[in-house]
Design a protein that fits this description.
Helix 1 links the parallel strand 1 and strand 2. By secondary structure, this protein is of the alpha/beta class.
Length: about 120
């Protein structure tokens, strides 16, 4: 996982598979230990379009409640998404952006080269 200088991290798990959420929790632990202190963390339960037709409805409901509670505890953004059905994807990115702006945590990597400058050593 690469997170040096990151303003945000979006951790995605399969909302129909509990072990997938356990892995996302490990990523949160890693971020809390090594990423910038003010990083915005979002946790997204993907494939929410499959939840309604799944046979393990009780497990899915329990996982959803656990994920929401964990996100609250970690002060993270939480949401359900489905890239296939275009559910919640734009919303979670908008919430991440809003949180970055609210925290004032946006920073530009000082090693970046502005696009409007010409190279002093090149031919063009």
């Amino acid at each position: 996982m690469y997170y040096r200088g990151a303003n945000a991290a979006l951790l995605v798990y399969d909302c129909t598979v509990k072990s997938s959420f356990a892995k996302a929790k490990e990523w949160v632990t890693e971020l809390k230990a090594n990423a910038p202190e003010n990083i915005v963390i979002a946790i997204a339960g993907a494939k929410c379009d499959l939840c309604a037709s799944a046979t393990n409805q009780e497990e899915i409901a329990a996982l959803k409640a656990e994920a929401q509670a964990y996100a609250t505890e970690m002060k993270a953004i939480w949401g359900e998404t489905s890239a296939k059905m275009n559910i919640g994807v734009e919303d979670i990115f908008n919430r991440i952006t809003h949180e970055i702006v609210n925290r004032g945590s946006f920073k530009v990597d000082s090693g970046a080269v502005p696009l409007h400058t010409k190279s002093s050593w090149g031919c063009c």
